[in-house]
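Standup notes, structure subgroup. Blocker cleared on the zinc ion input:
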Amino acid sequence: MSPESSAKRPISQKSGSELRTDPLTGQQVIIAPGRGLRPHSARGAAEASAPAREFDPACPFCPGNEHETPPAVLTLPEEANGGSWSIRVVPNLFPMVSASDGPQAGERPSLPASGSHEVVIETPRHDLELPDRDEEDIAAVLVVLQRRLAALLAERRTRYVSVFKNRGGQAGTSLEHPHSQIVALDFLPEPVSHRVRRARGYFRKRGVCLLCAMLRDERDAGARIVHEAGDVVAFAPYVSPSGGQVMVASSAHAASFTDAADGTLRDLARTLRALLRANRAAHGDPDYNLVLYTAPAGRLQDPALHWYWQLAPRLAHTGGFELGTGVLVNSLDPDDAARMLREAIGGDVPA
Ligand SMILES: [Zn+2]
Ligand SMILES: [Zn+2]
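Run returned:
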């Protein structure tokens, strides 16, 4: 299914389930709004844990506890000393991957999972979450992510760099203090290769970038657009692999997030702020992942590739059907998800 044909289809028949295929990944998704697994199954705000404090003496990311993390890779402002910083980037004390001397002889074939794993501490404030920041603060975090991404991509061994934010226990984080993570890998993950192959295949056939085509079609269709600021657009993709997912991309084509211009980062910050606030209001403050998809090393100028961010609120759990078939089930129609988020943005009081 091409994104051209998909985006122009009429708004889904609410009575039946539909099988859709994600043009980016080939992932099959059943959109099943009739299942009744609506977003109210998400953790509601009332069930959320007690509100965080401004400072937690036991938190390794809070000011005054800098000695509990390895020395910073980057600190802003650069002249900051002691607890006067605004953003710190530190190596993860419990990394997924680390520098390796080479393969170990083992019982079964394996390679070292080598690379580096950094944490971006977004603010000294323990309780100041991304949607509560102003646009300039969010833009400053994006600039730091972009700088570290560029630095890690420039290292000879790096094949791919994953940039993401996990918010809340259901999204895979153990620490409350607002932070993002950057994992540089000395190997190219197979699912990343798979996406690259699909995007290059589409480009060869159509002569246009797949994501540029998706953006154009979603703008033409309009139903799934959540927010637009300058060249940045947020939309609920026609094939959303899980409920409430939103893609955020710029129509200024670039394969690598390292090439996003300053103006695009500002528009992205404004869009992410509106989107994260709407996500909280529309779905009852769910845990979420915010993930960057960007070109692997060696393909930073590939015309077939195009960076984007994906917001995935944790509204439902996957079960045996998904494990057994590899087909995902999404009970929130993306047209409805987009409408809910647009309404939440419309009702948001500027802070
Ligand atoms: Zn803290
Ligand atoms: Zn593009």
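Discussed briefly. DSSP finds seven helices and 13 strands in the chain.
Next: hand off to the docking folks.
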